[in-house]
Amino acid sequence: EIVLTQSPGTLSLSPGERATLSCRASQSVSSNYLAWYQQKPGQAPRLLIYGASSRATGIPDRFSGSGSGTDFTLTISRLEPEDLAVYYCQQYGSSPRTFGQGTKVEIK
Amino acid sequence: EVQLLDSGGGLVQPGGSLRLSCAASGFTFSNYAMSWVRQAPGKGLEWISTIDSSGGTIYYADSVKGRFNISRDNSKNTLSLHMNSLRAEDTAVYYCAKARGYGYYFDYWGQGTLVTVSS
Prior knowledge:
The complex is a heterodimer. Chain A is built from no helices and eleven strands. Chain A is globular, with a radius of gyration of 13 Å. Chain A has strands at residues 4-7, 10-13, 19-25, 34-39, 46-50, 54-55, 63-68, 71-76, 85-91, 98-99, 103-107. In chain A, a hairpin with a 6-residue loop joins strand 9 and strand 10. By secondary structure, chain B is mostly beta strands. Chain B has strands at 3-7, 10-12, 18-25, 34-39, 45-51, 58-60, 68-73, 78-83, 92-100, 105-109, 113-117. The model of chain B has no long low-confidence stretch (mean pLDDT 97). The chains are: A mainly beta, B mainly beta. The interface between A and B is medium-sized, with 27 and 23 residues.
């Protein structure tokens, strides 16, 4: 089973700042099958990124994904107040599909 | 507009059973694999099961294998999860999710239904 470790656990930034979230896999993720989700308080998760770097439908271009192999990054270029959420990475290159433990983004 | 409506959650005693349902609309249900993902209170996400578009191939997480059964009715656009031998650690919000891609990521999610296993 691939273990995904996300860092930092919590990120506290001001509006307009750049947020960089990390997801590290215990072994290489096949074909860079890595997705990112946003979960706002009290809501279901929402797909942001799939295939490590492809934005999902309707996702603003200030969200971007990068990386390959075992190291992946989600970048929010200019934080907005509505970006307050927990962000999860998920690998779907091998079974079982696994999620990271999440990074909480707080807005100062 | 894709909509997934989860239902069937509630309070059940340890060792009991429960059936969750997910009503899908806004897309051709029979063309897509579907999954269940759960989230224990205050915890992260855990994938538990996927069924392919025809229902012919099914996958389970080890944590639920032998106790949970996923099924679908393509004529009614409905996904189900039959949960047996429930344990306290099965307490969670259960989400149905539309699956995409070769290995399955999840592009749309239901609102979730809470299952509480307690005496």
